Amino acid sequence: MKRVFSCVVAASLALSLLAGCSAKKPTQERYTTIFYDVFDTITTLRGYDVSQEAFDKQARQTHEALLAYLRSELGTVQWEAEKVSAGLYFFRFFQS
Question: I want to staple 48 with a disulfide (CB 3.0 to 4.6 A). Which of 28, 34, 39, 59 is the partner?
Answer without folding.
Answer: 28
